[in-house]
Amino acid sequence: MPLSPEEPQIPESAQGPRATPAAGRSAQTPRPVPGPRPAAPPRPGRPGPPRPAQAQREQQPKPPAPAATQIQLIPAPADGALDAAEEAVDLLLDSGRAPGEVLVVTTGEAHPWTAHELSFGEAAYWAQHDAGDDVFYADLPHVARLASRPVVVVVLNGGTDSAVATVLPVARERASTLLIVCGDSQRVNAVLGAGV
Protein backbone atom coordinates (compact mmCIF):
# COMPACT_ATOMS: atom_id res chain seq x y z
CA MET A 1 0.00 0.00 0.00
CA PRO A 2 1.56 3.27 -1.03
CA LEU A 3 2.18 5.89 1.65
CA SER A 4 0.50 9.24 1.52
CA PRO A 5 2.76 12.29 1.88
CA GLU A 6 1.37 12.90 5.41
CA GLU A 7 2.39 9.47 6.76
CA PRO A 8 6.06 9.10 7.65
CA GLN A 9 7.76 5.90 6.65
CA ILE A 10 8.92 3.79 9.59
CA PRO A 11 12.16 1.92 9.00
CA GLU A 12 11.91 -1.84 9.14
CA SER A 13 14.38 -2.08 12.05
CA ALA A 14 12.10 0.02 14.30
CA GLN A 15 8.93 -1.94 13.70
CA GLY A 16 9.31 -4.36 16.62
CA PRO A 17 9.42 -8.18 16.70
CA ARG A 18 8.21 -10.09 13.70
CA ALA A 19 5.63 -12.76 13.81
CA THR A 20 7.03 -14.23 10.65
CA PRO A 21 10.64 -14.32 9.62
CA ALA A 22 11.86 -12.04 6.86
CA ALA A 23 13.05 -13.67 3.71
CA GLY A 24 16.29 -15.48 4.31
CA ARG A 25 16.19 -15.26 8.16
CA SER A 26 14.89 -17.75 10.65
CA ALA A 27 12.56 -16.65 13.45
CA GLN A 28 14.13 -16.25 16.90
CA THR A 29 12.41 -17.33 20.03
CA PRO A 30 11.85 -14.30 22.27
CA ARG A 31 13.87 -14.42 25.47
CA PRO A 32 12.36 -13.54 28.82
CA VAL A 33 13.46 -10.25 30.37
CA PRO A 34 15.31 -10.88 33.59
CA GLY A 35 13.38 -9.49 36.55
CA PRO A 36 14.11 -9.28 40.22
CA ARG A 37 15.04 -12.60 41.72
CA PRO A 38 13.31 -13.80 44.83
CA ALA A 39 15.44 -13.43 47.93
CA ALA A 40 17.26 -16.55 48.97
CA PRO A 41 16.36 -17.83 52.40
CA PRO A 42 18.95 -16.84 55.00
CA ARG A 43 21.54 -19.38 55.92
CA PRO A 44 21.46 -20.58 59.50
CA GLY A 45 23.38 -18.27 61.80
CA ARG A 46 23.39 -15.35 59.37
CA PRO A 47 20.79 -12.62 59.15
CA GLY A 48 18.94 -12.36 55.89
CA PRO A 49 18.66 -9.25 53.76
CA PRO A 50 16.47 -6.53 55.25
CA ARG A 51 12.87 -6.57 54.20
CA PRO A 52 11.62 -3.42 52.41
CA ALA A 53 9.80 -2.03 55.47
CA GLN A 54 12.82 -2.76 57.67
CA ALA A 55 15.16 -1.11 55.15
CA GLN A 56 12.96 2.00 55.08
CA ARG A 57 13.03 2.26 58.88
CA GLU A 58 16.82 1.91 58.88
CA GLN A 59 17.21 4.65 56.25
CA GLN A 60 15.01 7.19 58.05
CA PRO A 61 16.98 9.73 60.09
CA LYS A 62 16.84 9.18 63.81
CA PRO A 63 15.54 12.02 65.97
CA PRO A 64 18.26 13.91 67.80
CA ALA A 65 18.85 12.94 71.40
CA PRO A 66 17.50 15.43 73.87
CA ALA A 67 20.07 17.99 74.85
CA ALA A 68 21.42 17.80 78.38
CA THR A 69 20.53 20.58 80.77
CA GLN A 70 23.25 23.20 80.88
CA ILE A 71 24.49 24.27 84.29
CA GLN A 72 25.75 27.79 84.85
CA LEU A 73 27.33 28.93 88.09
CA ILE A 74 27.32 32.58 89.13
CA PRO A 75 29.73 32.89 92.06
CA ALA A 76 28.29 35.03 94.85
CA PRO A 77 28.45 35.15 98.65
CA ALA A 78 25.31 34.10 100.51
CA ASP A 79 24.34 37.71 101.19
CA GLY A 80 24.77 38.65 97.49
CA ALA A 81 23.21 35.54 95.91
CA LEU A 82 19.71 37.04 95.74
CA ASP A 83 21.00 40.12 93.88
CA ALA A 84 22.94 37.89 91.46
CA ALA A 85 19.79 35.85 90.83
CA GLU A 86 17.71 38.99 90.17
CA GLU A 87 20.30 40.11 87.60
CA ALA A 88 20.24 36.65 85.99
CA VAL A 89 16.43 36.72 85.75
CA ASP A 90 16.51 40.21 84.23
CA LEU A 91 19.06 39.07 81.63
CA LEU A 92 16.95 36.02 80.79
CA LEU A 93 13.84 38.15 80.26
CA ASP A 94 15.77 40.80 78.29
CA SER A 95 17.16 38.08 76.02
CA GLY A 96 13.66 36.91 75.08
CA ARG A 97 12.79 34.26 77.63
CA ALA A 98 9.11 34.27 78.53
CA PRO A 99 8.49 34.93 82.25
CA GLY A 100 6.61 31.64 82.55
CA GLU A 101 9.77 29.73 81.59
CA VAL A 102 11.67 30.79 84.71
CA LEU A 103 11.54 29.33 88.21
CA VAL A 104 13.56 30.77 91.14
CA VAL A 105 14.27 28.67 94.26
CA THR A 106 15.93 29.94 97.44
CA THR A 107 17.75 27.76 99.99
CA GLY A 108 17.76 30.25 102.85
CA GLU A 109 15.29 33.02 103.55
CA ALA A 110 12.31 33.07 101.16
CA HIS A 111 12.33 35.57 98.30
CA PRO A 112 10.21 38.65 99.16
CA TRP A 113 7.80 37.75 96.34
CA THR A 114 7.24 34.29 97.85
CA ALA A 115 6.47 35.75 101.27
CA HIS A 116 4.09 38.32 99.73
CA GLU A 117 2.19 35.80 97.60
CA LEU A 118 1.90 33.27 100.42
CA SER A 119 0.21 35.99 102.51
CA PHE A 120 -2.84 35.46 100.22
CA GLY A 121 -2.90 31.75 101.01
CA GLU A 122 -1.45 28.53 99.63
CA ALA A 123 -4.25 28.04 97.06
CA ALA A 124 -3.62 31.42 95.40
CA TYR A 125 0.15 30.84 95.51
CA TRP A 126 -0.06 27.45 93.76
CA ALA A 127 -2.64 28.74 91.28
CA GLN A 128 0.00 31.17 90.03
CA HIS A 129 2.49 28.31 89.78
CA ASP A 130 0.05 26.18 87.80
CA ALA A 131 -0.85 29.06 85.46
CA GLY A 132 2.82 29.18 84.40
CA ASP A 133 2.60 32.66 82.91
CA ASP A 134 5.04 34.51 85.19
CA VAL A 135 8.36 33.98 86.95
CA PHE A 136 7.62 31.81 89.97
CA TYR A 137 9.52 32.04 93.26
CA ALA A 138 9.69 29.19 95.78
CA ASP A 139 11.68 28.19 98.82
CA LEU A 140 12.84 24.93 100.38
CA PRO A 141 9.52 23.83 101.95
CA HIS A 142 7.82 24.08 98.51
CA VAL A 143 10.52 22.61 96.26
CA ALA A 144 9.09 19.09 95.99
CA ARG A 145 5.81 20.35 94.50
CA LEU A 146 7.39 22.41 91.71
CA ALA A 147 6.76 21.55 88.07
CA SER A 148 9.46 21.58 85.38
CA ARG A 149 10.34 24.77 83.56
CA PRO A 150 13.00 25.45 80.93
CA VAL A 151 15.11 27.58 83.32
CA VAL A 152 15.57 27.14 87.05
CA VAL A 153 17.58 29.66 89.07
CA VAL A 154 18.78 28.44 92.48
CA VAL A 155 19.73 31.06 95.06
CA LEU A 156 22.15 29.81 97.73
CA ASN A 157 21.26 32.62 100.12
CA GLY A 158 21.86 30.59 103.26
CA GLY A 159 20.40 27.41 104.60
CA THR A 160 22.15 24.32 105.80
CA ASP A 161 24.24 22.00 103.66
CA SER A 162 21.37 19.50 103.77
CA ALA A 163 19.03 22.20 102.39
CA VAL A 164 21.41 22.79 99.51
CA ALA A 165 21.77 19.03 99.00
CA THR A 166 17.96 18.79 98.82
CA VAL A 167 17.33 21.77 96.51
CA LEU A 168 20.09 21.34 93.91
CA PRO A 169 19.20 17.82 92.67
CA VAL A 170 15.49 18.69 92.50
CA ALA A 171 16.26 21.92 90.65
CA ARG A 172 18.48 20.00 88.23
CA GLU A 173 15.60 17.62 87.48
CA ARG A 174 13.10 20.46 87.03
CA ALA A 175 15.30 22.50 84.65
CA SER A 176 14.76 21.20 81.11
CA THR A 177 17.21 23.60 79.43
CA LEU A 178 19.26 25.66 81.88
CA LEU A 179 20.08 25.51 85.59
CA ILE A 180 21.63 28.67 87.00
CA VAL A 181 23.08 28.49 90.50
CA CYS A 182 23.95 31.71 92.31
CA GLY A 183 26.17 31.10 95.31
CA ASP A 184 29.36 29.64 96.68
CA SER A 185 31.01 27.52 93.99
CA GLN A 186 32.67 25.15 96.51
CA ARG A 187 29.29 24.41 98.05
CA VAL A 188 27.75 23.76 94.63
CA ASN A 189 30.57 21.50 93.51
CA ALA A 190 30.35 19.50 96.73
CA VAL A 191 26.69 18.70 95.96
CA LEU A 192 26.56 18.50 92.14
CA GLY A 193 30.08 17.28 91.53
CA ALA A 194 33.19 18.85 90.09
CA GLY A 195 31.70 18.96 86.56
CA VAL A 196 29.83 22.19 87.28
Description:
With 196 residues, this protein is of the alpha/beta class. It has helices spanning 52-59, 81-94, 112-118, 122-131, 161-174, 185-192, and strands at 70-75, 102-106, 136-139, 149-155, 175-183. Strands 1-5-4-2-3 form a five-stranded parallel β-sheet, sandwiched between helices. β4, α5 and β5 (175-183) form a beta-alpha-beta unit. α5 packs across α6. It is globular, with a radius of gyration of 37 Å.
Supply the key terms.
single chain, 196 residues, alpha/beta, five-stranded parallel sheet, 6 helices
What is shown here, in short?
By secondary structure, the protein is an alpha/beta fold. The protein is built from six helices and five strands; from the N terminus they run αβαβααββαβα.
Indicate the overall shape. globular
Provide a count of the helices: 6
Share in helix:
25-40%
Q: Output the structural class.
A: alpha/beta
* Rg over CA atoms: 37 Å
**Share in β-strands:** 15-25%
Q: How many strands appear in the DSSP assignment?
A: 5
Query: What profile does the largest beta sheet have?
Result: 5 strands, parallel
Nearest-integer average pLDDT: 78
Widest sheet, order of strands: 1-5-4-2-3
Distance between the termini: 95 Å
> Element order, helices and strands?
HEHEHHEEHEH
Poorly predicted ranges: 16-20, 27-37
Topology of this structure?
Blueprint: H1 52-59, E1 70-75, H2 81-94, E2 102-106, H3 112-118, H4 122-131, E3 136-139, E4 149-155, H5 161-174, E5 175-183, H6 185-192
Parallel strand pairs: 1-5, 2-3, 2-4, 4-5
Helix pairs in contact: 5-6
